[in-house]
Structure formats: structure tokens, C-alpha cells
Amino acid sequence: MSEDPTQCLSPRSKEYADKTQKCLELHLSDMKMEAGKRLLKMSKKEDKLSLEYRVIRWIFHATVDIFYHYTEVAGAENIPPPGNAAILCPNHGNSLTDAVVCVSQTPRMVRLTAKDTLFKVPFFGLFVRNVGTIPLQRKDEHTEGVDNKQAVSQLNQELLKGSLVCLFPEGRSRFHWKVDSPQRGVSSIAYNCLSTAKEQGDNDYTLSLCPTAFNYLHREKFRSGLVVEYGPPLVLTPNDDIMKLDRQDAIAKISEQVHELMSLTAFNAEDWNTLRIAHTARNIFAPLGTRMTIVEFVRLTKYWGNALSVNDKNDPNLREDLTSYQENLKRLVLKTHVFQEPVGQHHTSCGVCF
To answer: Which of 87, 126, 148, 296 has its CB surrounded by the most CB atoms within 10 Å?
Structure first.
């Protein structure tokens, strides 16, 4: 960005915003370096895709391209090469659309999981079966009892073979501003696979937990935007220190690390109001006319969401400044994005001028 629109903010607010962004970038950089070292050591194999999978992925890809005007993928290099076991860990905010996006935008073949009742849906069930989906039973749909032993066993087998599996750590789909704490299913499966590999003497086995973000600009709006971002993975081996812990402690630790990675990759605001203020802050930081990709647009919004959370403790006036700015715009029946250039140097009590 050639300009510095942050001059609209108070100096203290700008300082904390910049510091937060640098801290996030350094934290992500460290994780990328560690994950990158392990990814480079992985062997590469051919990803054998069945004809049915290729056809269905093409249909899904065309569907996504038709519905969303802008679709960009970032961080695909963070996905381990074919032949290396990995679990995609995406946020789950758009129901079946998430599965369609996952299959169409992921460069490797993905094994999905879905509730078994979807297999009985006319026509759609055909797609579910032919992309190698593994059926899972839900308690609310099987009052007589749930038995997912076969599904879990199949997931373990696929991962031990080096497949890529997609599991939604949050569980059910729900539209939310915050990444919920993951359920322990993903971590349990990861722990079991690593334990089995160790028992089999396969000390070179690696399992990557890949944080994935489906960032919809307007999830149900036709011709809106979509950013799929793969963050640096958590790469585990049977001999890692985490596997020396008690089973429950190890599973809890893996869940904690997965949650941290997902929170850095997807939108993660404290509440709807924080997300709304983050959008306002982004529009001040990069006003109308600033050239940026949709990936930069999404990342800048995420940075501001994190900055607001941190600055509430260090600079409580930041949220108040931005909220007052919003209220003044509302009073004047204006929107932030109408400003093509940063406003002048004269500041009001809310830290910006009008």
C-alpha cells in the first residue's frame, strides 16, 4: 500500500495496531519455518485420482466459480505432498458448501466425513459416495445408539496409508464470528494413528494437522468473494515429546495447538461488534482506491480483529475511537468506503476527523 491511512488514528492506537500486526507476522513466520523444515523432508508420490473423483471435483469447481465472483487459494504449499498423511482442519460455517469448496479447491484428493443420512439423499448421495466420503452416525439421528467404530477404523487406515482427510474440529456447522474450541475427535484420531505407527515400528511416519480457513465475504450472496487459506501445519511424529504424555494430556495438548492454529488462519473475533469494528478499521487503514488482492483484504481484516482484542487491554480508547467514528458516519448517513483518501490531520475526541 503506497499510502499510510493510519494517520487518522491516534498515535497510541496506531502504535499498538502496528505492534500487533508485526507480532502476528513473526509468530506465523516461526510456525512456517518449523513446518517448512518437516515438509521438505517428506517424500512425494503420485496422487492417484479416480475418474469419478475427477469428474465430481470438476463439477464442484465449476459450481464454486459460478456462485462466487472472486475465489482465491492461499498457502497451498502448506499441504503435505501426496503419500503423506494429513488432516485438514477447517472452520465450518457454511454447511454443505464447505465440503464442496474443500474438494474443489484442495490440490490433493480429500477423504471427507459426513452424517450417514446424507448418503440416502437422492442424487446428492451419489456425489457423497463417489468422493470417498466416510459415513458417521449422529446421536440425534440414531436414538437407538451410535456406533462409529467402523468409521473411525476406516479413518485410521486411510491416514496410515498416507491419505488426506478433512475433519471439522468444531463439529456441527454454524455461522459464527469466532473459532470454537475443537472437539477431541480430531486429536483422538491423530493420537491413535501416531500410536499405531509407533507400535508398527514406523518411526518415520508423519501426520500433519493443517489449519484451513474458508473465509466467505458474504457466504450466501451470489457473486461475492471466497478465500481458502491453508495455514502452516502442526506436523507430528510418533517420537515427538507430545506422544510421551498420558493419552488424555496428549489429546488435550494437540487440541489446544489445533485451536491456536485455526484461530490464526480463520476470522476470529470476540463478537459480532468486534468484527464490525475490524471492518471499519480496515477501511480507514486501506481506504477506497487502495489496490490489494482479496487475500490481503481478508488478512488485513483478521489482523485488525486481533489488534482490537489485544488493544482492549493496552489501549482501551481504540475500540471507543472506532465505535464513535462509526456512530458519526451513521449520523451523517455515510459509509467508510466512500473516502478515497485519508482524511485530514485535525482529530476529534474519537481519534479520527470527519
So the answer is: 87
Tracing cell 491516534 back to the chain, one arrives at: 10
Q: List the one residue out of 255, 300, 257 whose CA is nearest residue 282.
A: 300
Report the alpha-carbon distance of residue 303 to residue 67 in Å, rounded: 27
Count helices and strands (H / E) in the chain: 10, 8
User: Low-confidence residues of the chain, pLDDT below 50?
Assistant: 1-9, 340-354
Residue with cell 470476540: 270
Annotate 170-207 with DSSP letters as a single string: T-S----SS-PPPPTHHHHHHHHHHHHHHHTT-TT--E
Q: Residue 354's pLDDT is what?
A: 24
Q: How far is CA 320 from CA 135, 308, 315, in A?
A: 48, 10, 10
What is the rounded CA–CA span in Å between residue 335 and residue 339?
8
How confident is the model at residue 338, as a pLDDT?
A: 55
178 CB burial (10 A radius; 0-12, 13-18, 19+)? middle
Q: Name the strand (E) or helix (H) holding 88.
A: strand 85-90
Cα 315–Cα 321–Cα 323 angle in degrees, nearest 5: 120
Distance in angstroms (rounded) separating the CA atoms of residues 80 and 108: 9
Sign for the CA dihedral angle at 122, 127, 128, 132 comes to positive
Q: What is the pLDDT of residue 84?
A: 95
Q: Are 275 and 327 contacting, i.e. CB atoms less than 8 angstroms apart?
A: no
What DSSP assignment string belongs to 260-316? HHHHHHS---SSHHHHHHHHHHHHHHS-TT----HHHHHHHHHHHHHHHHHHHHH-T
Q: How much is the pLDDT for 54? A: 92
Q: For cell 481504540, name the residue.
A: 318
With H, G, I as helix, E, B as strand and everything else as coil, classify residue 43. Answer: coil
Burial class (CB in 10 A: 0-12, 13-18, 19+), 318: buried
Measure the CA angle with vertex 61, ends 293 and 107; round to 5°: 75
User: What is the residue-wise DSSP string for 103-137?
Assistant: HHH-SS--B-EEEGGGGGSTTHHHHHHHTTPEEE-
pLDDT at 347: 32
Beta-strand relationship, 113-115 and 134-136? parallel
Lookup: cell for 232: 502452516
